[in-house]
Amino acid sequence: MTYLLLGLALFLGTHSIAIAAPRGRERAIARLGARPWKGLYSVLSLAGLVLICWGFHLARQQPVLLYLPPLWLRHINALFTLIGFVLIAAAYVPRNHLKARLGHPMVAGAKVWAFGHLLAIGFLRDTVLFGAFLIWAIVAFAVYRRRDRKAGRIYPAGHLRGDLITLVIGIAAWALFAFWLHGPLIGVRPFG
Predict the structure, then answer these.
(1) Does residue 191 contact residue 178 with C-beta atoms inside 8 Å?
(2) Are 7 and 51 in contact (CB under 8 A)?
(3) In Å, what is the CA distance from 73 to each residue of 80, 129, 172?
(4) Residue of 69, 79, 142 whose CA lies nearest to 116
(5) What is the C-alpha R_g of the chain?
(6) For residue 9, is it left (φ>0), alpha (ψ between -120 and 50) or beta?
(7) How much is the pLDDT for 166?
(8) CA-based nearest residue to 167, from 113, 109, 93
(9) What is the pLDDT averaged over residues 87-107?
(10) Counting runs of H as helices and runs of E as strands, what totals does the chain give?
(11) What is the rounded CA–CA span in Å between residue 46 and residue 161?
């Protein structure tokens, strides 16, 4: 569990700099330059992600069951994950209503993904992993939305074309991951 916790601290800590210390981030970018800052940020994030994966793998070897969720929550998790993938797609597709309304659909997608997994899986390792991501996403979304309101930021209006592209990309990415990649990469086949 140590590597998992260290990875979460490094990955989510790196992703929390803009939340907790936006002026410090701006000063670091000014001092280092944008490209070196992005490089350092990427290296630290990647190191955190590797530690999360390694730590999660190690934690699976000594499972600790906290609760036994009912089987139907797996189906609910599939729906939450599908919504999460659509929200993440909305972060990248221009001029869609989700981006216009939420402002930060990727963070909202992380919230939905983490919450669904918390409902469906009752092991300690999963509770630590998805609970940490859920808490981070709740805080990040609230902070980012508050900053947007304070700055008077308005996102470009959404259009039907952007919505359709978002849905197609989100659903296709979800299906690819759920049916083909989740098993080989994560070690669990969500649909048998």
Answers:
(1) yes
(2) yes
(3) 10, 18, 22
(4) 79
(5) 18
(6) alpha
(7) 98
(8) 93
(9) 97
(10) 10, 0
(11) 34
At residue 73 the predicted structure's pLDDT band, cuts being 50, 70 and 90, is very high
| For helices 72-92 and 160-176, angle between their N-to-C axes, nearest 10 degrees | 130
**What distances in angstroms separate CA 3 from CA 7, 38, 69, 164, 178, one per listed residue?**
6, 24, 26, 40, 26
Residue found by looking up tokens 């934690």 in the block: 59
Separation in Å, CA 35 to CA 16, 28, 30, 39: 19, 11, 11, 6
Question: 92 with 168: CB under 8 angstroms?
Answer: no
CA-closest candidate to residue 49, choices 6, 107, 109, 91: 6
Q: Mind listing the pLDDT tens digit for each residue in 132-162?
A: 999 999 999 999 999 999 999 999 999 999 9
- Could you write out the DSSP letters of every residue in 129-168? HHHHHHHHHHHHHHHHHHHHHHHT--PPPP-HHHHHHHHH
Residue 147 burial (CB count, 10 A): 15
pTM of the model: 0.92
